[in-house]
Amino acid sequence: MAFKTIKRPKISLGERFYLQSILGGLWLTIRHLVLALLGKSRNKKELAGSGIGVTMQYPEARWDKHLPKYYRGAPVLVKGEDGRERCVSCQLCEFICPARAITITPGPIQEGPWGKVEKAPREFQIDMLRCIYCGMCEEACPEQAIFMSHNYLFTPTDKTQAIHNKAKLYELGGTRKGLVNKWNQYK
């Protein structure tokens, strides 16, 4: 078996001490510093800054206006136009959740003519500390009862505040107007 020896290239002193990389990083930092001192930094208007730096001033300025439509925030439950719960306790979102953050206890519907046919969640909980905001629960729901909201401000102080129950999820979600898109023949 033949071996081929490969000679390593000679490394200069500048390459050995990473001088080119260090000087490139310093040049970038100095350029940002000069632009900030002149008040010409990038994204000054979008980030509502003073021109010194490109950091968003968080409590005063928020990302709400800059979020794209496809942003996946916290999952919420929605009601239909008629005020009924859209969730029918099929438990598909619970089964598909990779983090096992959703817990559903099904129960019957008491009011209306749907009482013998449909179910509704007796308990619906999402552990927001376990949720990974993947959006699979939204995709699996045949009734479009669970949506990923644009809410990203979530700061619980203890674990009990991090578990959203059915009432909290409906409060955050509100009502959703329009047809259920999965059954809309014109979509």
Overview of the structural elements:
The protein has helices spanning 13-16, 19-38, 92-96, 136-140, 159-162, 166-173, and strands at residues 75-77, 102-108, 119-127, 146-148, 163-164. The protein is α+β, with helices and mostly antiparallel strands and 187 residues long. The protein folds into two domains: 14-62, no CATH class; 75-181, Alpha-Beta Plaits. The longest helix has 20 residues, at 19-38. It starts with 12 loop residues before the first helix and ends in a 14-residue tail after the last helix.
Strand content: 5-15%
What is the gyration radius calculated from CA atoms? Answer: 27 Å
Would you state the CATH class of the largest domain?
Alpha Beta
Q: Estimate the global geometry from the Cα principal axes.
A: elongated
The ordered string of helix (H) and strand (E) elements is HHEHEEHEHEH
What's the count of strands?
A: 5
Could you tell me how far the N terminus lies from the C terminus, measured between alpha carbons in angstroms? Answer: 66 Å
Mean pLDDT: 84
Overall helicity: 10-25%
Subcellular location: Cell membrane
Binding site for [4Fe-4S] cluster 1: 87, 90, 93, 141
Keywords: 4Fe-4S, Cell membrane, Iron, Iron-sulfur, Membrane, Metal-binding, NAD, Quinone, Repeat, Translocase, Ubiquinone
Organism: Akkermansia muciniphila
